[in-house]
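Prompt: Have a read of the protein record below and flag anything odd:
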Amino acid sequence: MPLAIPVSPLQIWAFQGLSLIFFLFLFRALLRRASEKGAQSDRRSRWGILLQTVGILTVGFGRPSVVLPLFSPASLLATAAVALLMVGATWLFAASSSALGRNWSIVARMRSDHELIRSGPYARVRHPIYLGLLLFLLALAVAFGHWPQLIIAVPLYLAGTRIRTDVEDRLLEQTFGESFREYRNSTPALLPRF
């Protein structure tokens, strides 16, 4: 059985409520995406998706130890951390999927009319959706008190992210050439520079 740090119902409720909003934006992006017929895709990104998913599920595995009083200082601090992480995750996903528009897809692919997006969150990082999903993973760990599982979950998630970013960067370079190389050299992959 996984180790669980004590949590309160408040931080779990915060995660559940904000997750609903996150998944509404995901559903909206799924409805807005363009047809993938004739798109150049790379199935290797599915391995990355699998590793990222296993990383997130690793953090969610097991029962939380719900013993903290609802409004204790530890509960309020953890709830604030969950809210901050989830607002960041949701904003990054919503803003990034909106900036991508019809280019957004779950699996790495390039459509014939694909555009190189460099605005919105893409002005700061090349793969902001994956940063948002990392924030989601961390919020889940805080909400459920599954901090010890991060030792396994974060490396799995980052390995999957590396596979996906490599595949996507390769497709973008093949499509946009020097324009993408210039963008890659000036913009970090996952963590923004401050």
